[in-house]
Write a structure and sequence with these properties.
heterodimer, A: alpha/beta, 9-stranded mixed sheet, 8 helices, 22 strands, about 30% strand, B: about 300 residues, alpha/beta, Spore Coat Polysaccharide Biosynthesis Protein SpsA, Chain A, 10 helices, 8 strands
Chain lengths: ~375, ~300
């Protein structure tokens, strides 16, 4: 007879471990199933590490207001992993931006987030940007956050995290979901949370439920060593084919990303199928994604392209050098193309037994889960 | 493996209903860039093509390995100058190649020739075919030379290379660039021209829209960048003023010498003085307009629909 848990959570990223700790602290028995050998190995770690306050969404005030609301709370809860010791500059490009400096300022006022106008020529080459603004935005350090969660969950006997688990089947059997891994081990639960992010549709495929309408992007985040002038700044030229270079948590390096060159390849299918999968020498298939960051078939770095883009804008005194690249798969909701919003989507597929899927592209909207975890 | 150039090169190609030529041309540019540069990009500026140009570009871009190819779709027909400005604004390269026409009457080695020439210290190097210009072009450049400060600097150019320095300078100098060649020539950095032997005959590839556009551009350029309009009106005014003075003298003579019909002298005198004043006012108005033209440049310059990244 297999063991029955109050909650089974698929995916040991931030959303998964947050839920585990949330439920575990209430005394519920929780099982987290993770296919990698450690937590926070994918999107939670491989991203810009931005704690969003909404600046990023000048065309979606709803996303902005929501991010701003969670910003304070996230900082309060996780201040130990947050880097706020830098000046964050947002700028609007003179060409090709979907918003200009004036519009950005107005938007910040409407969203109620701090924004102080700076002289664009101080940071950017002449004529490249029509507005630069000092904002308040932090970055988090995923590795410190991971250690915090490992520590907290280890203190609770009722939370189990299993690594290296690949799920083979999931069945709805009367009052429970029966999860069977590829080794044949079975787990039972009345509440299944799918927090697999890029793998979310693959889990839904096993369940036979309606999948998220998403596209997949194989993304590259570049870590850079920077000089002292750049060290205390984070720059984002936003809303268009631009770039961002900002501190990567507390690691001392900066992350460099660009809208055009960070995504290497895109897949519009329900399940991720990429040409590189056949060379991955692991079990990466449309049915189960491997970890791009550890894959031998990862793409050649786009650093020269991103660097040239950044240097086209930034004044020459801001110097950065390539250190390493991180890769991960990023699912993007198809509905958010026009306004560039990033809503958190939480779908409940069944109750008793309950099955919930979550998909969110932002770290500090993790609190969106509270409601569904309380009800379940 | 020989060493490839470390500089990042961007190529901007103007595409307007060019399904017949773009495949061969794009492939040629892509091959030259990939053979010679470690990193490069190609931006195809699609200026409202109504034919299969876009799908042809998509097909060719699938062959690209290191070069990043994208299409910049303009919202409506902008014409060569604005469309190319849009493309150059998007480019991120250390050097940017501008191809005004996707037609290769030059040897592929010429592309690298202009690049090497640029490395020797020229911010702008242009390449033009060594052949007799069209009659209309000859006339245009003659008039331009006659009435502008920049003598002998302009001719029909097939493509050119720009350094990042010159692009930065131009973007901080001008809000809009109505005619690139003039602005490049006037930017004050070192420029050079290369002449090549044109292979084959250049047929006329312009469609009706482009022909109208080119004619309009020629007229605009002469008005904007030369003093032609002002000189014409000034000389006309002086001539007409002289005529008025002669008329006044004549009517006074007639009044004294013979006896014209009552009222004739008054009418002619009045008309002459009125015309004299009118022409004076017109010249001043035209001078004002000339000055205002500069201010008009400050408007938002182009509108693009989308940017599609096809590779990399």
């Amino acid at each position: 007879m297999c063991k029955r848990y109050d909650r089974i959570i698929i995916g040991a990223g931030l959303y998964g471990l947050y839920s585990a700790l949330y439920c575990g602290s209430r005394g519920e028995s929780v099982l987290v199933l993770e296919c990698d050998s450690s937590p926070f190995g994918r999107a939670t770690y491989v991203n810009q590490a931005r704690v969003h306050q909404g600046y990023h969404y000048p065309r979606s005030i709803s996303t902005a207001v929501k991010s701003a609301g969670y910003f304070e709370r996230f900082y309060k809860d996780f201040h130990f992993c947050i880097n706020r010791e830098f000046e964050k500059v947002y700028a609007t490009s003179a060409c090709y931006s979907w918003s200009n400096g004036g519009q950005f300022k107005k938007f910040c006022e409407a969203a109620g987030i701090p924004c102080e106008e700076l002289r664009a020529e101080k940071f950017f080459k002449d004529g490249m940007c029509d507005g630069a603004f000092l904002t308040r935005e932090y970055t988090y350090d995923a590795m410190i956050l991971r250690d915090y969660y490992l520590d907290k969950t280890a203190q609770l006997k009722n939370i189990t995290i299993k690594y290296g688990i690949e799920i083979a089947t999931i069945e709805n059997v009367q009052d429970a979901y029966l999860v069977r891994d590829t080794e044949g081990v079975e787990y039972r639960t009345g509440f299944l949370l799918n927090a697999a992010y890029a793998g979310a549709n693959q889990i839904l495929d096993l369940l036979g439920y309606e999948k998220f309408r998403i596209k997949y992007e194989l993304c590259e985040i570049i870590l850079c060593d920077v000089n002292d002038v750049l060290k205390n700044y984070g720059f984002t030229v936003m809303d268009g084919p631009f770039f961002s270079i900002m501190p990567f948590g507390k690691t001392g390096v900066h992350s460099l990303t660009s809208v055009t060159f960070t995504p290497h390849t895109t897949c519009y299918d329900d399940l991720p199928s990429f040409a590189c999968q056949k060379d991955s020498r692991s079990d990466c298939t449309p049915g189960h994604l491997g970890n791009c960051n550890q894959c031998p078939a990862k793409p050649v770095s786009a650093f020269p392209y991103m660097a040239n883009l950044a240097r086209k804008y930034l004044r020459d005194e801001y110097v950065f050098h390539y250190k390493e690249s991180l890769y991960s798969m990023k699912p993007i909701l198809m509905s958010s193309e026009i306004d560039d919003s990033r809503p958190t989507v939480i779908r409940t597929y069944s109750t008793n037994p309950t099955c919930v899927s979550v998909l969110s592209g932002k770290i500090n909207t993790v609190y969106d889960l509270d409601e569904v975890l309380n009800n379940g | 493996m020989d060493k490839k150039e470390k500089n990042f090169l961007s190529a901007v190609i103007y595409v307007h209903n060019a399904e017949a030529q773009i495949e061969k041309f794009l492939r040629m540019v892509k091959e030259v860039l990939e053979e010679n540069f470690e990193h490069s990009e190609i931006i195809c500026v699609n200026d409202d093509s109504r034919d299969r140009s876009v799908s042809v570009i998509r097909n060719v871009s699938a062959e690209a390995v290191t070069s990043s190819i994208s299409i910049l779709n303009m919202s409506y027909f902008h014409g060569l100058e604005m469309a190319m400005n849009a493309g150059v604004d998007l480019a991120i390269g250390d050097f940017v190649l501008e191809f005004d026409l996707p037609v290769s009457d030059f040897d592929r080695a010429e592309i690298m020739n202009v690049y090497y020439r640029a490395l020797r210290g020229f911010d702008i190097v242009s390449a033009s075919p060594e052949r007799k210009e069209k009659l209309s072009s000859t006339f245009f450049y003659k008039v331009f030379d006659r009435f502008s400060e920049m003598t002998g600097k302009m001719s029909t150019e097939r493509f050119r290379i720009l350094s990042r320095r010159v692009i930065n300078r131009i973007s901080s100098m001008n809000k809009t660039v109505p005619y690139r060649k003039v602005v490049y020539a006037a930017c004050g950095l070192k420029t050079d021209h290369i002449k090549y032997h044109a292979a084959g005959n250049m047929e006329n590839h312009y469609d009706r829209k482009e022909k109208n556009y080119r004619f309009g551009l020629a007229v605009d350029t002469l008005i904007l960048f030369t003093e032609m309009g002002y000189w014409f009106s000034l000389s006309m005014t002086l001539f007409m003023m002289l005529m008025s003075v002669i008329m006044i003298a004549y009517s006074v003579t007639v009044y004294i010498a013979s006896h014209p019909v009552a009222g004739w002298t008054t009418t002619v005198l009045f008309l002459s003085v009125a015309f004299f004043g009118l022409f004076g006012i017109l010249t001043i108005v035209i001078k004002y307009l000339q000055l205002l033209v500069d201010l008009v440049f400050k408007r938002k310059h182009y509108s693009f629909e989308s940017i599609e990244k096809l590779t990399k």
